[in-house]
Amino acid sequence: MRNLLLVAYYFPPIGGGGVQRALKMAKYLPEFGWRPHVLAVDPVAHVSLDPSLLDQLPPEVVVHRVREWYPPGLAKLLGGGGTRAASGVKESKEGGNAAGGTKDGGRAAANEGAGAPGVSATLRTRTMRLLKAARKYVLIPDDQILWYVPAVREGKRMLARYPIDAIFSTAGPNTNHLVALALRRRRRLPWVADFRDPWTQNMHRSGIRWREALEERMERRVMAAADIVLTVTRSFAEGFREKHGDVIKRLEVIHNGFDAADYAGIEPDRVPGKCVFAYAGIFYKERNPRLFLRAVRELIDAGEIDRRDILLRFAGVFDYPGYTDNADAVAQLGLSDVVEVLGHLPHRRALALLKGADVLLLVGDTASGSGAYIPGKLFEYMAVQRPILALSLPGEAASIVERFRLGEVVRPDDLPAMKRAVASFYRRWKAGRLHTSGTLPHEAYALYERREQARALAALLDELVAP
User: Fold this and answer.
1) 277 with 191, same domain?
2) Would residue 444 count as lying in a domain?
3) By C-alpha distance, which of 13, 27, 33 is closest to 58?
4) Is the overall model pTM greater than 0.85, yes or no?
5) Phi and psi for 427 in degrees, rounded to 5?
């Protein structure tokens, strides 16, 4: 079995959609001859933990966890972080666990550094506000750059300890690629740089000219050094080719997807007597449910929907800490009795929520260029096989919904069309004609099933290391 150094800042027990690609590659690559040695952040400072995800890892997988570095004194002020270099939370059965950790090690670590004695809450709050304002001028290319030095240090130890055959880094954060670039310079191993989102072509940019110029240079160095630049959509690949085609050696696409095994044995979380619209994911400025909420309210006022019949269930991040825009909209529209905000759920509970829904709500970004993005939750929705209401600009996500007849697509800024779609789903539910979206064709499984995607990555790695 060949050995792969997999650089992924976000990795279980950290939960959420951002860990799924790295987790599933680590889960299935051993079946195709590759043993992952994962370099990830220590989850001490992360609140969205789902330790059950660690149960998916086969015993061959080795995980090394490294804490971010903070300037002296800042760690105590923020109530977390530190300078500890590394702690293995899960080692292979063969190699043992040098740190004495277990699969639940992340939970124990989460309690460390929880307090900051002697520092007032007011001072901490003011400092956090200052840091938040200053970080886009300091933390480049992203907030996770404080992980870079200890991660490179531990990566070098891994290269010395294990017979690593190739490197795979998956981003965001883009700091992952900088770590991999440093390790590639240490030893000239084959390297696949995986972009789940664009870097300098991202629709969420800093707007700071000198910073963007610096990131352009960083990105170009990564693109030129990687043996394969890998990404998740054709649109992203086209953008990379247009911008860096003169330095990219090879460009490939392996989509995000779903793991069919995740859905086995999950009982649907149904709410009898309700037409349930469910959403699982994160909201932020350019992706929010407020126009959808307004559409539902106007349909109720017009008598097209009986408010006693409908329930809108939201799992994940409804409002980021410090913001209440979406919660305020619920209150202002008088929808508190039809909206249920569930917060972060373990992955299997989130899937039960989706399986029990009548309609799965997909909310896309309204920012220019967002049509090139495919939200990862679309693939989970696809596997659940419930009808989808996709509020999405024209692009790859909309095309997938239409191509496989998964539901209806409406622009996220088109209120009249949104109301027509919601009313149509409601009428079909009322008449008992709102059924599953049907069986997925083989083509969809071949493109979007996680095991098949791991097979495709293993084939690329095999090509790179072939004598």
Assistant:
1) no
2) no
3) 27
4) no
5) -65, -40
CATH code at position 272: 3.40.50.2000
Residue 299 has pLDDT above 90, yes or no: yes
Asked, as a colleague might, if the bond just before 150 is cis with ω within 30 of 0, I would say no
**3-state SS record for 277-330:** EEEEEECECCECCHHHHHHHHHHHHCCCCCCCCEEEEEEEECCCCCCCHHHHHH
Bond from prior residue into 141 cis (ω within 30 degrees of 0)? yes
* Same domain (yes/no): 277, 414: yes
Q: Are residues 139 and 287 in the same domain?
A: no
Residue that is written with structure tokens 């690593």 in the block: 164
Give me the pLDDT at residue 4, please. Answer: 98
Domain count along the chain: 2
SS3 assignment, position 5: strand
Average pLDDT over all residues of the chain = 87
pLDDT at 115: 38
In a shared domain, residues 426 and 351: yes
* Contact (CB, 8 A) for 21 and 171: no
240 and 319 within one domain: no
Residue 248 lies in a domain: yes
Residue 159 CA to residue 156 CA, distance in Å, equals 5
Amino acid, single-letter form, for residue 86: A
Amino acid identity at 411: R
Neighbours of 294 (CB within 10 A): 17
In a domain, 132, yes or no: yes
* Host domain of residue 125: 2-257+450-465
Q: Where are the alpha helices (DSSP H) in 190-233?
A: 209-225
Question: Rounded to whole angstroms, how far apart are CA atoms 65 and 44?
Answer: 10
Segment (H or E) for 176: helix 175-186
Q: Report the range of poorest mean pLDDT among 17-21, 169-173, 182-186, 311-315.
A: 17-21
For residue 306, give Cα distances in angstroms to 252, 274, 340, 388.
Answer: 49, 10, 17, 21
Rounded Cα gap, residues 270 and 256, in angstroms: 27
Task: Give 356-382 pLDDT, tens digit per residue.
Answer: 999 999 998 887 777 788 888 899 899
Tell whether 441 is covered by a domain: no
- Do 416 and 460 belong to one domain? no
Report the chain's terminal Cα–Cα distance, integer Å. Answer: 15
Same domain, 209 and 326: no
> What token pair was written down for 314?
């939201």
